[in-house]
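As agreed, record copied across for absentees:
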Amino acid sequence: AMGEQFVVNTTMAGEQQRPRVVMNGQREFVIVWNSETEPGSNERNIFGQRYDSLWEHLGNEFQVNTYVVGDQRDPAVVIKEDGEFVTVWQSDGQDGSEYGIFGEFGPKKGSAELTGDGFVNFRDFCILAEEWRKEGNPLKADLIDDNRIDEQDLEAFCEQWLTPLYECSEVDIDSDGKIDFKDYAFWAANWSEQGPNLDGDITGNGIVNMADLNALLFHWAQTCE
C-alpha cells in the first residue's frame, strides 16, 4: 500500500458515489462526486474537496452545483497549474429539457467570497473574524493556505473587498446595456421563484434571491460596455 486510506466526504447521510479525481503538476488535487440529497432519494447534488500538495484539506467539503432543482449527477473535473478547476456534470431539467450538461468554476484558492452569495462583503468578513488567530486545517478563511488566520489573510481579503463575481453584462437582465429599475423589476417579479431560466436568476442557482440582488446593486446605474 502507498499509505493510509482516508475519508474524503464529510457528508455521511445518503450514498456518496461516482468519485472523480484530478491532479496538477504541483500535486494539488480535487475530488468530486455524487451525493444523495436525502437517504434513499433518486436525486443527487455534486460535492467536492480540494487538497494541497501535502494531501491536506484545503477548506471544507463544498457543493459544486448551485441549481438544486432535480437530479445533478456524474461529474468530471479538470485542474490548472494555478489550482483553478472546472467541474461539469449532468443536470436534470435545468435547460428545460431533461438532462443537460452544466459546469462551474471551483472555489479559487485565495478567494474571499466565503458565503456563496456572489459578493465579498461583511458576511464574509464575519467568517474571517470568527477564525481570527486560529490555526489548523481546514479553515474557511485561510486565503493564503498556510493553515492559520492572520494579517496576511486579512490583507488578501481587503484586496477583494466589495468585489462581485458577475460582470455588468451578466446582471443586465433586460439586455438594454444599462442597469436600472427595469432590471430590478424583472428581479422583483420573480422574487423567491424557483426553476430553470428565470429572469433575475443572475447566479444561475435555480432561485431568485438576495444573491442576485447583491449582484444587481453592485452595478446599479452602470452602463455595460
